[in-house]
Amino acid sequence: MHEVAADEIHGYEPHLTPELAGAAFYPQDCQVQPMLMAAHLLRLAREHGACVRTGTTVTGFLRDGDRVTGVRTDRGDISAGHVVNAAGTWAGEMAALAGVDVPVLPRRGFILVTEPLPPTVFHKVYAGEYVASTQSSDEGLQTSTVIEGTRAGTVLIGSSRERVGFDRTVSLPALREIARKALALYPSLAPVALMRTYLGFRPYCPDHLPVIGTDPRAPGLAHVAGHEGAGIGLSVGSAKLLVEAMTGATPTIDITPFRPERFSLQEVS
Ligand SMILES: Cc1cc2nc3c(=O)[nH]c(=O)nc-3n(C[C@H](O)[C@H](O)[C@H](O)COP(=O)(O)OP(=O)(O)OC[C@H]3O[C@@H](n4cnc5c(N)ncnc54)[C@H](O)[C@@H]3O)c2cc1C
Q1: Residues 141 and 184 in one domain
Q2: Angle CA 6–194–178, to nearest 5
Q3: Which of 61, 137, 165, 228 has a C-alpha 20 to 30 A away from that of 130?
Q4: Cβ of 88 less than 6 Å from ligand 1
């Protein structure tokens, strides 16, 4: 990361407001198209022998004593030496089916999508308050600007965070606040039309860390979930850490802070 002086910002982002005191530039920051990335990961998994069963719901777990030996689904039972709970925002419900507590909860977020524009936003641009917003434990509406252009010319404008369960109602106050803050950073977007908005539910844990690892409370079961607003970027790295944990390989980093049983331990202490 290097600092960018106020008078240099326009060399990076010519349409940003001139009112800024300075900026930070992350040269290694990258963008991915999430659906394309998911498609590539699925293709690679299939090439390595995975069988992908879409439209199949896990309804329970097969057990041999304490040990998890597979899953029960609405299309029949599947036996397995290991089961990985990667159910995203629903990972808590999935864990509950196995009788263990992994508190992954939904955090609603809206994104605004503009009409295709000539190149306007050249990097993923965050307001400094974004980090504080991701780490906040407030339940109410929080907004912090993050703006990025896409190859198609649309500009994606976020972001909001709210703890409202799985409520899919469109919130005009949230959309308005996202737009207001974005215009403060990019005044030239004022006349631009929005094509659509969308919402999603980020999977978060109360301590804002993901859950990655095998579960000592249910041998045979592992979890990888709860990555909040970074689960796409962190997906491949998280899978690597989980494989290391499951195979006993030397861990690339210490994953103790991510252990699935940490919440029950906190209750005991
Ligand atoms: C508005 C918004 C903006 C975001 N921006 C970014 C960003 O810029 N960068 C980034 O990295 N991340 C971003 N995220 C976060 C990212 O989308 C998530 O962290 C990520 O998608 C989580 O991936 P996952 O594989 O853990 O879960 P998911 O992608 O949710 O996958 C879980 C899967 O499990 C399935 N499932 C659930 N229950 C069952 C069951 N009982 N049986 C079978 N299947 C089941 C679900 O159908 C789903 O397909 C954003 C999220 C939102 C909402």
Answers
A1: yes
A2: 50
A3: 165
A4: yes
Claim to verify: residue 240 and residue 150 sit in the same structural domain? no
Q: Which atom of ligand 1 is nearest to the CA of 158?
A: 1
Q: Please tell me whether residues 126 and 195 are part of one structural domain.
A: yes
Q: Which of 204, 233, 260 is the last residue before a domain boundary? A: 204
Nearby residues of 200 by Cβ (< 8 Å), 6 or more positions away: 108, 109, 111
Query: Does residue 44 form part of some domain?
Result: no
Pocket test of ligand 1: the residue of 155, 232, 241, 258 to mutate, having most ligand atoms within 8 Å of its CB, is 232
User: Is the separation of the CB atoms in 214 and 247 below 8 Å?
Assistant: no
In tens, the pLDDT along 51-105 reads 999 999 999 999 999 999 999 999 999 999 999 999 999 999 999 999 999 999 9
Q: Using the atom order of ligand 1, give the atom closest to the CA of residue 97.
A: 41
Nearest atom, ligand 1, residue 109 CA: 1
Which range of residues forms the domain containing residue 140? 2-30+105-204
Q: What is the pLDDT of residue 20?
A: 96
Pocket test for ligand 1, best of 227, 228, 234, 258 (most atoms within 8 A of CB): 227
Question: What's the total number of domains in the chain?
Answer: 2
pLDDT at 253 over 70: yes
In the predicted structure, residue 266 carries a pLDDT above the cut 80 = no
Give the pair of three-digit tokens for residue 254.
């210490």
* Residue pLDDT, tens place only, 131-158: 888 888 888 999 999 999 999 999 999 9
